[in-house]
Specification:
The chain is 33% helix and 14% strand. By secondary structure, it is an alpha/beta fold. It has a single domain (6-246), classed as Rossmann fold. Strands 3-2-1-4-5-9-6 form a seven-stranded mixed sheet, with helices on both faces. Strands 7-8 form a two-stranded antiparallel sheet. The protein is elongated, with a radius of gyration of 18 Å.
Length: 249
């Protein structure tokens, strides 16, 4: 098994990447009542259903060690080689993980193979993601990452069809993913917050230092507030996050 990316960047991930109840509600509604549930690329266990049988798949020991005691049992494996017979699971989920799979098409085919019912994938639309201020103003280098990520529509097609829902990001989002802090820019000055964002954690130290220094200056002199005054009264935004829901066979 090749060394998963989160062996390098996942330390402390469980501290800032907590479940947001609004995201959880949308994801759980998409899963319906199917059992058992497979969580692929499960990380520290966020958004796993607690009212039914769940089995997690995660390749990174760093992430597995951060799973809480109440989390589902976990198998160390990769998406493109799932060690289960066909139609083992009633539903499957994959939360902000497909962009890290070395072969997304193979992984999605495997998830569909082992799942008889709905497959729910939280992913992002690259075009919308790259248009957010964090990228355009401070980390344009993110555009060089995840270029092979299938579009949400392509993920749905790979799973046999389905629909795509927008996952809005509330201003007080509890899950510290990349654009969760869109109205709280000071958070990006925290090394702990940045460690939970793979698009930043994968950048060279020099890139991060430059971006953080510029953001700090822009916050101090009011540049950020003037440039993004339109965001300050908003309760949520579309930052590109998408929920792909494939109903299954």
């Amino acid at each position: 098994m090749s060394r998963p990316i989160y062996e390098a960047i996942g330390v402390g991930y469980g501290v800032v990447r907590q479940e947001d109840p609004r995201v959880r509600h949308q994801l759980q509604a998409a899963l319906g009542g199917a059992v058992p549930v497979l969580n692929v690329g499960a990380g520290a266990g966020s958004y796993e259903p607690r009212d039914r049988a769940v089995l997690a798949v995660e390749p990174s020991l760093t992430m597995i060690r951060q799973r809480p005691d109440h989390a589902a049992p976990v198998v160390r494996a990769v998406a493109q080689q799932l060690p289960f017979p066909d139609a083992t699971f009633g539903a499957a989920m994959a939360v902000l993980t497909v962009h890290h799979w070395p072969d997304a098409a193979a992984g999605l085919a495997e998830v569909r193979r082992v799942t008889d019912g709905p497959v729910v994938v939280l992913t992002f639309d690259q075009t919308v993601h790259l248009a957010q201020w964090l990228v355009t103003d401070y980390f344009p280098e993110m555009a060089e990452l995840d270029g092979e990520l299938p579009t949400p529509a392509a993920i749905a097609a790979a799973l046999g069809g389905g629909r795509v829902e927008v996952v809005s990001v509330p201003a007080d989002c509890l899950d510290g993913f990349c654009h969760a802090w869109w109205r709280r820019p000071q958070a990006y000055l925290s090394a702990a917050v940045r460690a939970g964002i793979s698009g930043i954690a994968r950048q060279p130290v020099g890139v991060v230092d430059r971006a953080v220094a510029q953001l700090a200056r822009d916050l101090d002199d009011g540049t950020w507030a003037r440039a993004h005054a339109d965001l300050l009264d908003r309760d949520s935004i579309d930052a590109g996050y998408r929920l792909v829901i494939s109903p299954g066979r």
